[in-house]
Amino acid sequence: MTINIINEVQAKFQFHYKELAEKVIRCSVEMENFPYDPEVNLTISDNIRIQEINREFRGIDRATDVLSFPMIEYASPADFSGIEQQYDTINPDTGEVMLGDIVLSADRIKAQAEEYGHSQKREFAFLIVHSMLHLFGYDHMEPEEASVMETHQKMILDALKIFR
Q1: In this structure, what CATH number is given to the domain that contains residue 102?
Q2: pLDDT tens per residue, range 17-33
Q3: pLDDT score at 85
Q4: Contact by Cβ (8 Å): 53, 67
Q5: Does 134 count as an annotated binding residue?
Q6: Domains identified in the chain, total number
Q7: Over the Cα atoms of the chain, what is R_g?
Q8: Is 152 flagged in the annotation as binding?
Q9: Is the pLDDT of residue 87 over 90?
Q10: 130 labeled part of a ligand binding site
């Protein structure tokens, strides 16, 4: 498994962010029974940069807490059949499946942790889990989808012993 972490803004947290990010990504992969060696890219940015990315790729001109860019198309969430046929998702150098990219706003992590009354560690972990589930094909646009995604988020965070 390859996990690339870039801290564009040299954000400082009250915890070891690289260690936590790797732990959360690994647990998400395990809990969702992803059957391949994955590659995940995580970038920590700020509100200004994430707004630029959001505007460029989604046409939404505002900052957000996290953006997910999945590389795999799924018939249904966590349906990993057929990934071998999506050759553009296999890194030719490593043979790993490129799940996709996650972009976090350090500004929003800190603000939302305070707003929701929990730690920055919990907010950081939650946003990574949330994004990993998007990389596995989950969504939350419909109430039924949201319920399934929330259940998986809670299972993963509970397994990590990260609570509100």
Answers
A1: 3.40.390.30
A2: 999 999 999 999 999 99
A3: 80
A4: yes
A5: yes
A6: 1
A7: 15
A8: no
A9: no
A10: yes
